[in-house]
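Hallway conversation turned thread

IA: we were arguing at lunch whether anyone had actually written out Cilia and flagella associated protein 144 end to end. Turns out nobody had. So, for the record, here is the sequence (83 residues) and right after it the structure tokens. Reply here if something looks off.
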Amino acid sequence: MLHTEYELIPLRVHILTRKPMSWHDNVEEPADAKFLHLIRHAALEPTRKYTEPQTESQEIGWVTTPLVSEVLTAHAESLEEHG
């Protein structure tokens, strides 16, 4: 037999969790400086986060400054043109 009569039981309270990304649920809470620092640090590119590569894949392109200065390169090009 199908039960079709329903009633509210006031002693039972169902609590729903708040949505973490909802702006109106978090208005009253102040921003946590430590948490914001961690989020900003995590968003940085690896070369700004770490002093050296953390994986072998990061080793390629980690050092973006030329190993030979542009002055030496320009001098070598001028020597090739003249000689």
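OS: looked through it. The mean pLDDT is 75.
IA: good, adding that to the notes. DSSP finds four helices and no strands in the chain.
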